[in-house]
Amino acid sequence: MKNIFVSNLSFRINDEDLKQAFADYGEVNSARVIKDNFSGRSRGFGFVEMKNDEEADKAIEELNNAEFDGKVMTVSVARPKTDRKPGGFGDSRGDSRGGFKKRF
Fold first, then answer.
1. CA torsion sign, 66 to 67 to 69 to 71?
2. 6 belongs to a structural domain
3. Cα of 96 vs its chain's centroid, Å
4. Into how many domains does the chain fold?
């Protein structure tokens, strides 16, 4: 089973559209367009999971840099999430709002 990352999607694309784009290459287990938590609008990327690795590789090869709904999408093997540093946006030099703390 292979997880595929798809970026530069049109904001009009939904899960079913994404699934159909990959279905021509083999069995699609799932297709998900990632949406903004607040607006519910597409963030322009998504993930497709295909059952057969060979079919997934062919889909990646043929759909990468292909036009889909007026945009040229980028398709690649999805990489696992990396561990993020705790503490959010701030670091030891500034606060979480991007400003700098006064040091006396």
1. positive
2. yes
3. 26
4. 1
